[in-house]
Amino acid sequence: MQIDLVPVWTVILGVGVFMYVLLDGFDLGVGILAPLAPDDDSRTLMMNSVAPIWDGNETWLVLGGMGLLAAFPLAFAIIIPALYFPILLMLLGLIFRGVAFEFRLKKTSHRHWWDASFFGGSAVATFFQGVVLGMYVEGFTVTGRVFSGTSFDWIQPFPLATGVGLLFGYALLGATWLVMKTEGDLQRRARRQALVALYGVLAFIAMVSLWTPILHDRIRERWFSVPNVFYLALVPIVTALIALATWRALRRNADYIPFIGAMALFAMCYLGLGISLFPYVVPYAVTLWDAAATPSTQAFLLIGTLFLLPIILMYIGWSYYVFRGKVTHDVGYH
After folding, report:
1. Which of 9, 59, 106, 193 lies at a 20 to 30 A Cα distance from 15?
2. Kind and range of the H or E run holding 125
3. Which stretch of DSSP H or E encloses residue 165?
């Protein structure tokens, strides 16, 4: 009997994308908040809080992209042409952010340029990741098995609004990370920034919750038909409770709970997205099973993936363990 590996690969890619959003999200968020630092020393401390781990976080982006190509090649062939320019601009933003890490402390005479690269690269990468997400929810123009839209279909209100929403989301992750990793005035500023970002995230969640059922009948039927409406109501209820707990933790000067709450908010949004789009990998034209590679190909790829995943998890976990605790001014990135 042949084993259906599509659910296995769906979980692997889903976990990979989610891990990227969480882990690279908070260091991009730190970059977004960098211009708000009160002085150069504070900005250096912010960068030092993510410097040892930022490049390892991007491992998950590679896993997600290559996994999509290998396990769901038809989806890759449709999605990449549709999102060519947003993905290109996102990658350019990540490059500028990475260059800023390497040169900011080495070229002190041009530090203001590298500070601008750190912020600009982080903001551009975040915005276009949001555009990619928004366009994915919006759906693609597909004729048969080929993308038949244009390279500029992403210039629409919903994807652009999603880009702005993700700026608030990553800013929330970045601010709560700084609350957890710093002390003193910088931590107090991060708390205030986290509260503002939290309000922005909640407004964005409300906007998407109202907008997507209007965009697509399938999403409206999935969430509001009977009996779905009764048990899926748990998702917004739990999301509201997490938001309340995060808000209270920030107001009560907790160090760790706000970051956990921010991650939990992202997890609930990710769950809601999965509920809305399943079983499509190219909304709303190609299902996971239609886009999947042959079973033999998926089985062959799974052997290597199951060997590499534990290694990735171990070295990332070890990195976070080694660099645990508060960041201080006497520890730098060299």
Report:
1. 193
2. helix 111-138
3. helix 157-181
Q: What is the DSSP letter of 252?
A: T
What counts of helices (H) and strands (E) characterise the chain?
Answer: 15, 4
Residue 168 has pLDDT above 90, yes or no: yes
| pLDDT the model gives residue 1 | 55
Distances (CA, A) of 255 to 128, 156, 224: 30, 39, 38
Q: Encode 244-271: b = buried (16+ Cβ within 10 Å), e = exposed.
A: ebbbebbeeebbebbbbbbbbbbbbbee
Q: Are 19 and 60 in contact (CB under 8 A)?
A: yes
pLDDT class of 108 with cuts at 50, 70, 90: low
Residue 329 predicted with pLDDT over 90? no
Answering whether pTM is above 0.70, one says yes
> Distance between terminal CA atoms of the chain?
55
Task: Please enumerate in sequence order all residues whose Cβ is within 8 A of that of 158, keeping only pairs 6 or more positions apart, or say none.
Answer: 134, 137, 138, 211, 215
Cα(32)–Cα(209) distance, integer angstroms: 25
Q: Would you identify the CATH topology of the domain 8-322?
A: Formate dehydrogenase/DMSO reductase fold (1.20.1630)
- Beta bridge partners, 147, equal 142
**What are the domain boundaries of the chain?**
8-322
User: What is the Cα Rg of the chain in Å?
Assistant: 20
Give the pLDDT confidence of 66-100 residue by residue, as tens digits. Answer: 888 888 889 999 998 899 999 999 999 988 888 88
Burial 160-197 (b: 16+ CB within 10 A, else e): bbbbbbbbbbbbbbbbbbbbbbbeeebbebbbebbbeb
